[in-house]
Amino acid sequence: MRRERSAKIVATLGPSSSTPERIAELASAGVDVFRLNFSHGSHEEHLARFEAVRAVEKERGRPIGILMDLQGPKLRVGQFERGRVGLTRGEAFRLDLDPAIGDQKRVCLPHPEIFAAISPGTELLLDDGKIRLGVERCGEDFAETTVLAGGGLSNNKGVNVPNVVLPIGAMTDKDIHDLMYGLELGADWIALSFVQRPEDMAEARRLVAGRAALMAKIEKPAAIDRLGEIIELSDGIMVARGDLGVEMPPEVVPGLQKRMIRACRDAGKPVIVATQMLESMISSPAPTRAEASDVASAIYDGADAVMLSAESAAGEYPVEAVSMMSRIIQSVEHDELYRSYLEAHHAVAERTPADAITLAAGQVAHTMQAGCIVTYTTSGATTLRASRERPDRPILGLITRMPTARKLALAWGVHAVFTEDAHDLDEMVAKARKYAKQEGFASPGTCIVITAGLPFGTPGATNILRIAWVS
Q1: Fold (topology level) of 353-469
Q2: Looking at 8, 35, 49, 393, which residue is catalytic?
Q3: Which of 27, 167, 217, 445 makes a 20 to 30 Å CA pair with 55?
């Protein structure tokens, strides 16, 4: 399962992709990390998918990551007498806490936190932005609005409140229950929805307590304003363009995507670009040219991974979607312009032995045309440093903890191998030679570059660089 590409693929499991046979096909087609979307499905269904992924992992002998995606708060209107109403531009429409069935003039909005945060002039977006309401008057239990953009509105449609920080935490009781279940299963990554502020990540980190890596989904404009602080408290970032594009003008989302990718590269933390990447492949065996360009753009920018949602979870062509995404990535990474785009920006190295050694390793590997850069790591810090630099040689991560190896399945350029730690330098070099040859990165006479830290097993203590030849 060595990939002929550096960027990774995340695929969501669902009704179209839940059998052990289909999961094995998806892994063969190119999936590096499987996403369990806890907005849908029961715990029993997620357990079956989890076990199927681990069975494929055992059969292939390669670490596969599992990302658990929490639902987060869902803000929705109530129900209508006939299930649906039509709103016309310029009409008055009331939202309130009254649980009575709605009609043409009003509907229940059972979220007092929204009424507490809005003011006259605030815009409310309903049904993914298809309906726009302007607040004229409001109180602690109501909002009188004018329809700015009309259309049909049916039961339980979602509500977005752009440009307002809502006094709502990122996790509901359901999320906390799901989180504890996912941690008990052994999920490698936890994706937190509805992140608005750094405090949301701090609370989640307290609950996770080091049992998994924590990812912030950036889908709220408020999170953009404090992006640096959120990245600092996260182990990775997901650019959730669907919800972000509802609450912000679509034309600003591409620039924000590039900004978030660069910020994560600077921080040395994995970043996933997600939502509607190959949307037409839900029902078509081939993507549009625009979708192929969208995936390619994320790869040119240096994203660690790109993600399939409904395409793999509920679409008619899940395996074909993964194969297509893999081919697009490979095509970009073989383009002669790719390296120039990738090298146009470099993270600023800190004045530490670890950063100095990692930078030198990439330069030495390039000059020597090494088969790979071998990194020894327990926590993953050494390997993530190498990934941050986006070297032009593959990164072979020799990792002494399986949870770390699975986490690094998401990191750009990293081929993770689970192995026991070395006890001395000679054993370290011997292991590096063995795995470089075994995993197909080097043949006899090929040079490899090795980074590690002494004493062995000390997290983040990268202080050794060795050159070795495979015999």
Answers
A1: Pyruvate Kinase; Chain: A, domain 1 (3.40.1380)
A2: 35
A3: 217
Residue with the two structure tokens 């924000």: 256
Task: Give the DSSP letter string of 108-120.
Answer: E---HHHHHH--T
Backbone angles phi, psi at 379, to 5 degrees: -85, -20
Q: Of these residues, 122, 145, 275, 358, which one is catalytic? A: 275
What pLDDT shows up at residue 351?
87
From the list 3, 22, 54, 76, the catalytic residue is: 76
Q: What is the structure's pLDDT at 423?
A: 83
Pick from 321, 336, 277: which is nearest to 303 by CA?
277
Instruction: Tell me the pTM.
Output: 0.93
Q: Which of 5, 106, 132, 217 is catalytic?
A: 217
Cα–Cα nearest to 35, from 195, 252, 316, 240 = 240
The amino acid that residue 409 corresponds to is: A
12 is catalytic: no
105 counts as catalytic: no
Does the annotation mark 393 as catalytic?
Answer: no
User: What CATH number belongs to 8-72+170-337?
Assistant: 3.20.20.60
Mean of the per-residue pLDDT values of the chain: 95
Asked if 206 is an active-site residue, the reply is no
If one looks up domain 84-160 in CATH, what number appears?
2.40.33.10
Domain range list for the chain: 8-72+170-337, 84-160, 353-469
Which residues 6+ apart lie within 8 Å of 340 measured at CB? Answer: none
In this prediction, residue 133 carries a pLDDT of: 97
% of the chain residues with pLDDT over 90: 88
- The answer, yes or no, to whether residue 278 has pLDDT greater than 80, is yes
Give the per-residue pLDDT at 354: 87
